[in-house]
Amino acid sequence: MTDSTRWRLVLGEQATPHAGPLADEHAERDAALDWLYGRDPERAERGERRGGSGPSELTTVDWLDGIHRLFPRATVERLERDAVERYEIHDVVTDPRVLARIEPNPTLLRAILRTKHLMHQGVLTQARRIVETVVAELIAKLAVEIGQALSGTRTRRPSRFRQARDFDFHGTIRANLAHYRPATGRIAIESPRFVARTRRHAERWQLVLLVDQSASMAGSVIHAAVTAACLWRVPGLATHLVAFDTELADLTTEVTDPVELLMKVQLGGGTDIARAVAYAATLIENPRRAIVAVISDFFEGGNEQELVRSVAKLTGQGTRVLGLAALDEEANPVYHRELAQRLANAGARVGAMTPGELAGFVAERIAR
Fold it and tell me: Is the pLDDT of residue 154 over 50?
């Protein structure tokens, strides 16, 4: 590829008088990019040609076939993501011919959850195949991450068995401080300590996942469903999953089938976090052995004062409350920081976690 061709592709059609016209596959690449990015309102304001105009308009099927032939996989994934998320080209997920051609991926799964209300039964069947594929991949990946977080937990009871993996570093330091040698700056270890790896399950713990169904929380909804499925069989832990907007849907009985669960979730609508937290309080059996994870962007449509009071009441009785602005692999949220701070002031631990980090947090509490 010549420098002039490269600059023409970067700068667009307006650069043709200076860089010359494109030919062959370069022209096809330019047309494919213009079909998508020509929709940008800023281009119309500048008087540039918009994609999708004229008698030779590409269909979404033609466009998908073209980009898979013209671009490397990483570029294709970016183009598909922009088509779905940036330009909301709904026929990417509502046209069965398109669904048959597109590669299943998390972006497509989020789009299906947002638009499945637009799909007729035949399209839903195609969409379910994609949901099954992506969920299976997520479970395979997250099960390892969550399993590692759970398998590493230990009780703090001393152990007679001396194994390197059970070495209690902090306990050993505390037990041997009397043998500190100032001259060398070292501690002589005379009594190494080890801890038991077995867990105590005499009293059951509860984990209540409250998941905001706002459209912006689609990624967290998906990961919450998969995380609940992975945690369902953890000994000594009862996992609840509740989806909410202005209404509540207790999906606990569905957690063993995350595909069916996700096909029932309805993204969008208002948000009443206070109502969800109040419902979670009714599920708790032993407040000091319960964790309530509120997965939301904290843009509350209900009563903020009631929400803060409910969280303060839960934390006051010994329940661990997590305010998670994101539960996904990136854990990079956009959320209402003022309300999140008020919840933190009420005793909640507020932030964002990956599913593995949440599993680790739960496992550490169970093991104590």
Answer: no
